[in-house]
């Protein structure tokens, strides 16, 4: 929870969080090195200097550090964890559901743990998805369409093996499908960042919500267009707020377009932790305002109401979170007294 | 062959000018401006260009397009007999460098790994570049308080006259826009309308605001991506580089 100077409470969910292990002993190859290198360069390029980390911490930070960064310092009432496996690059996986579950075990009330599936895994993958669901009862999954898998260097949501997975998710009641559409590794296909496959799958599965991570960042213009047409497509902002320090003008431009085309009810804040941390992002975002021209083009000023939706209320709706309950019992570090 | 100093400088200059015209297809900005050209070597009639991109994982297809365009732009210089492009610090550099060196197509080099074809990407991004450049011109005209009816009714000749008289950034932006428009083979005679919508039709006065939004969205996306690339490139090769990122010692030689 963030509290403004005027005493207004703002409920916060970080909609895009990881708990990764990129230490040398877990890296399988040069790909494992260069993958975390990309994250590290984003971290350094976007984070204010006094908030940057040491390399050793960045490789693996663990549950204690994440607890402090997200819940103690970072204003988060809850955090959504999005697993990324990458077994081709990391021996034990990069950021698996199992790894992420460590944070859930520490904070059962504050962590929304998502599952993960890869539609290329066929029938065994469907069985694994069901077994994972039995174990963790997640309400969402992450699809990393750019993930390498043997000879395959990625897939599209148009591929014929995808609908069986969507049907399974629908049947299990797993309604939130987070799809990575943004920088880092990519399939070798004709346009690595194409977001147009979202359009068809979202139409075919209207009961599912598709949260497009990074708003398809290299193709925000295409994403905006698709999202205007598909009511069940959401923009996962992660990476876009991170521009707020290093490139505030570009941040305003991107958010302006997203607000106009996608609207304030379908944008979800994320820090992409630990690429950067929610504390400084949320402080800057709460202090950020549009000038008159930008507000006109966005169709709305960046009001407290809009900020509340982006920072938590939209995500709470997707995951069925009781916001009032959290506002009345803010996070307390263990060892300190609980709020009355 | 011994060149005199003036001729050597001419050659350097001509290579720089040629490279200056090569853009990142995804960003519609020059490779030199983006800092992607790391090194240029000229030995007699041979030119070697070293390319380094913001990440190890930058799109192989865009890298390939850049490589082909460098070869074509530098190879067009009358004194050049051979151009080699060397991409470094990239996941597909062996394949890409070999393919470029042997003038193979992207599809031949990557086989089944590559879906779709590179020409289609080129076309898609030519459209984006055209729309993005149009947005830049429209924005400048709007700032000059031109009425919407004047903007949508303006001919290419009138736009060029207006640009020449207006000065500032306008003449450069208009030239860039018209170049991209001609590359798309949209009719671009003096009397043709200066601005068309995304389907190459006349823009009604009432539709100008929506059209502006559409093209500005494209431009905003291009610009934001370019900034992300600059940020990553600077971080990758700056003092904060990851401990293992020290590159493969490719800078054996330097220009001059």
Question: Which features does this protein show?
Answer:
heterodimer, A: 340 residues, alpha/beta, TIM Barrel, six-stranded parallel beta sheet, three-stranded parallel beta sheet, 11 strands, 43% helix, globular, B: 256 residues, mainly alpha, GMP Synthetase, Chain A, domain 3, two-stranded antiparallel sheet, 10 helices, disordered C terminus
Can you put this structure into words, describing what you see?
The complex is a heterodimer of chains A (340) and B (256). With 340 residues, chain A is of the alpha/beta class. Chain A has one domain: Metal-dependent hydrolases (TIM Barrel). Chain A is 43% helix and 11% strand. Chain A is built from 14 helices and eleven strands. In chain A, the strands form three sheets. In chain A, strands 6-7-8-9-10-11 form a six-stranded parallel β-sheet, sandwiched between helices. In chain A, strand 7, helix 6 and strand 8 form a beta-alpha-beta unit. In chain A, helix 8 packs parallel to helix 10 and helix 10 packs parallel to helix 12. The mean pLDDT of chain A is 94. Chain B folds into two domains: 112 residues, Fe-S cluster assembly (FSCA) (GMP Synthetase, Chain A, domain 3, 2-Layer Sandwich); 118 residues, no CATH class. In chain B, the strands form two sheets. Chain B has a three-stranded mixed β-sheet with strand order 3-4-5. Chain B starts with a helix and ends in a 20-residue tail after the last helix. Chain B is mainly alpha-helical. Chain B is 53% helix and 10% strand. Chain B is globular and about 55 Å long. At the A-B interface, helix 1, helix 8 and helix 10 of A face helix 6 and helix 10 of B.
């Amino acid at each position: 929870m963030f509290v403004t100077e005027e005493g207004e409470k703002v409920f916060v969910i970080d909609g895009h969080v990881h708990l990764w292990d990129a230490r040398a002993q877990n890296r399988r190859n040069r790909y494992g090195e260069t993958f975390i290198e990309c994250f590290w360069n984003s971290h350094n390029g976007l984070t204010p200097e006094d908030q940057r980390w040491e390399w050793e911490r960045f490789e693996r930070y663990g549950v204690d550090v994440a607890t402090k960064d997200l819940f103690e310092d970072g204003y988060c009432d809850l955090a959504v964890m999005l697993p990324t496996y990458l077994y081709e690059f990391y021996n034990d996986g990069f950021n698996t559901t199992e790894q992420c579950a460590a944070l859930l075990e520490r904070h059962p009330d504050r962590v929304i743990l998502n599952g993960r599936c890869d539609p290329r895994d066929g029938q065994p993958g469907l069985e694994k998805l069901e077994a994972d669901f039995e174990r963790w009862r997640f309400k969402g999954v992450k699809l990393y369409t750019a993930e390498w898998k043997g000879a395959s260097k990625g897939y599209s949501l148009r591929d014929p093996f995808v609908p069986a997975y969507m049907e399974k998710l629908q049947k299990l009641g797993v309604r939130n499908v987070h799809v990575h559409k943004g920088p880092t590794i990519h399939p070798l296909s004709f346009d690595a960042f194409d977001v147009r496959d979202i359009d068809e799958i979202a139409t075919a599965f209207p009961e599912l919500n598709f949260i497009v991570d990074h708003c398809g960042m290299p193709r925000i213009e295409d994403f905006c267009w698709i999202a205007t047409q598909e009511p069940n497509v959401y923009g996962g902002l992660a990476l876009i707020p991170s521009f707020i320090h290093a490139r505030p003008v570009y941040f305003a431009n991107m958010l302006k377009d997203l607000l106009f085309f996608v609207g304030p009810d379908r944008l979800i804040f994320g820090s992409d932790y630990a690429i950067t941390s929610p504390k400084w992002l949320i402080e800057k975002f709460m202090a950020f305002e549009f000038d008159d021209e930008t507000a006109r083009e966005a169709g709305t000023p960046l009001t407290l109401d809009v900020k509340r939706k982006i920072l938590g209320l939209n995500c709470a709706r997707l995951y069925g979170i009781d916001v009032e309950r959290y506002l009345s019992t803010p996070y307390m570090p263990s060892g300190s007294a609980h709020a009355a | 062959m011994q060149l005199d100093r003036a001729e050597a400088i001419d050659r350097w200059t001509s290579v720089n000018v040629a490279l200056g015209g090569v853009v990142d297809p995804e960003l519609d900005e020059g490779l030199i401006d983006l800092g992607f050209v790391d090194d240029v070597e000229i030995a007699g009639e041979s030119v070697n260009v070293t390319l380094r991109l913001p990440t190890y994982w930058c799109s192989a297809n865009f890298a390939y397009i850049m490589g082909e365009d460098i070869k074509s732009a530098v190879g067009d210089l009358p004194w050049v007999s051979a151009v080699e492009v060397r991409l470094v610090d990239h996941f597909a550099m062996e394949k890409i460098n070999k393919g470029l060196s042997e003038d193979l197509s992207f599809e031949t080099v990557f086989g089944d790994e590559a879906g779709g074809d590179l020409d289609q990407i080129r076309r898609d991004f030519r459209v984006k570049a055209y729309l993005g450049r149009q947005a830049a011109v429209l924005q400048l005209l709007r700032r000059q308080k031109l009425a919407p009816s004047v903007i949508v009714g303006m001919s290419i000749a009138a736009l060029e006259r207006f640009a020449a008289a207006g000065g500032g950034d306008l003449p450069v932006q208009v030239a860039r826009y018209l170049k991209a428009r001609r590359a798309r083979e949209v009719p671009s005679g003096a009397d043709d309308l200066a601005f068309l919508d995304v389907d190459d039709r006349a823009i009604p006065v009432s539709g100008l605001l929506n059209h502006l939004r559409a093209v500005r969205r494209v431009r905003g996306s291009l610009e934001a991506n370019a900034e992300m690339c600059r940020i990553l490139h600077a971080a990758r090769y700056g003092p904060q580089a990851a401990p293992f990122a020290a590159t493969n010692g490719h800078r054996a030689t330097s220009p001059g």
